């Protein structure tokens, strides 16, 4: 693991940008960006357009390693180039931003109030490819929809099992057991989730560290003991469907937790904006998220 990248993620101020929408969520991301579904034909054109959007964000003068610690990439973005360099290489070499890769293959059907991840039979090959391209870490998402102890245990167990596989490949795993912000007993689900996370964290050996990406909790500072845990490199928060303003307000009340926002980061950006307007809008978004992450 790259020591400078590790130190940046461990201790620098800033947040992680999640630019990892995949096939299922890309049409929505493009539509919010002002590109309607009838503007492209087929998946290839869709991914070309979303790569243009991501390139515009990443190459913007507003988007720099002074406020952004890392970026989570979609696999296709990792395989493509930005300004003539591999995307992960460009991020670190040009911007001093640490590259991560989304590795999950989407969600399985709901069982026991939760959605585990689909099987990832080609994960080892993907991890080796990512490492070769200069990627530092990974991210994978499951979803908890109800305060069901069994479903939550299954989700967390799977996250840690695959997390160990990622550690063994020399990469830093971001474990993301998201609690749906509309869960009927969100606070109850978070209590069960924290207990399950602590159980698994306590089984790691001292030199094994993971990152956690969690929904902003219903109780302020509820994850303080996860932030302080010796086996946790950093706790980051997803925006989870909150507007950027709401997400920033809630995040600021959780000390030591930093943002890893996707939709809330790109809110207000549009393909129709001039570069000046685009960069000004992005700069304001980054400033607000950075500030909320600094508490």
Describe it.
This protein has a domain of 118 residues: TIM Barrel, CATH 3.20.20. Helix 2 crosses helix 3, helix 7 packs across helix 8 and helix 10 packs parallel to helix 12. The longest helix has 20 residues. It is α/β, with parallel strands linked by helices and 295 residues long. Strands 1, 2, 5, 6, 7, 8, 9, 10 and 11 form a 9-stranded mixed beta sheet that branches. The protein has a two-stranded antiparallel ribbon with strand order 3-4. The chain contains 12 helices and 11 strands. The two termini are 28 Å apart. It is globular, with a radius of gyration of 18 Å.
Strand tally is 11
Sheet with most strands: 9 strands, mixed
Q: Can you tell me the overall shape?
A: globular
Q: What fold name stands as the CATH topology of one domain?
A: TIM Barrel
User: How many angstroms does the end-to-end distance come to?
Assistant: 28 Å
Which architecture of one domain per CATH?
A: Alpha-Beta Barrel
Q: Helicity range of the residues?
A: 40-55%
Instruction: Give the CATH superfamily of one domain.
Output: Aldolase class I
Percent of residues in beta strands? 15-25%
- The arrangement of helices and strands along the chain is HEHHEHEEHEEHEHEHEHEHEHH
Task: Compute the number of helices.
Answer: 12
Structural class: alpha/beta
């Amino acid at each position: 693991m790259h020591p400078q990248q590790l130190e940046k993620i461990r201790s620098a101020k800033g947040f992680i940008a999640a630019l990892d929408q995949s096939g299922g969520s890309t049409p929505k991301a493009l539509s919010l960006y002002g590109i309607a579904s009838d503007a492209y034909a087929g998946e290839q054109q869709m991914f070309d357009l979303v790569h243009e959007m991501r390139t515009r964000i990443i190459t913007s003068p507003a988007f720099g390693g002074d406020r952004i610690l890392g970026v989570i990439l979609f696999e296709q973005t990792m395989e493509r180039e930005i300004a003539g360099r591999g995307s992960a290489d460009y991020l670190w070499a040009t911007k001093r931003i640490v590259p991560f890769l989304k590795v999950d293959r989407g969600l399985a059907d709901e069982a026991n109030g939760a959605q585990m991840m689909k099987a990832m039979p080609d994960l080892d090959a993907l991890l080796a490819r990512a490492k070769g391209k200069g990627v530092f870490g990974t991210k994978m998402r499951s979803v908890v929809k109800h305060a069901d102890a069994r479903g939550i245990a299954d989700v967390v167990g799977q996250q840690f099992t695959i997390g160990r596989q990622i550690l063994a490949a020399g990469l830093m795993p971001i474990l993301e057991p998201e609690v749906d912000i509309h869960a009927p007993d969100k606070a109850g689900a978070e209590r069960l989730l924290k207990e399950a996370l602590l159980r698994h964290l306590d089984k790691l050996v001292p030199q094994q560290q993971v990152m956690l990406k969690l929904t902003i909790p219903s109780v302020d500072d509820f994850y303080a003991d996860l932030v302080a845990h010796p086996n946790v490199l950093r706790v980051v928060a997803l925006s989870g469907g909150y507007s950027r303003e709401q997400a920033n307000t809630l995040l600021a009340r959780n000390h030591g937790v930093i943002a890893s926002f996707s939709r809330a980061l790109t809110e207000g950006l549009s393909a129709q904006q001039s570069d000046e307007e685009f960069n000004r809008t992005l700069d304001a978004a980054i400033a607000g998220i950075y500030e909320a992450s600094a508490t």
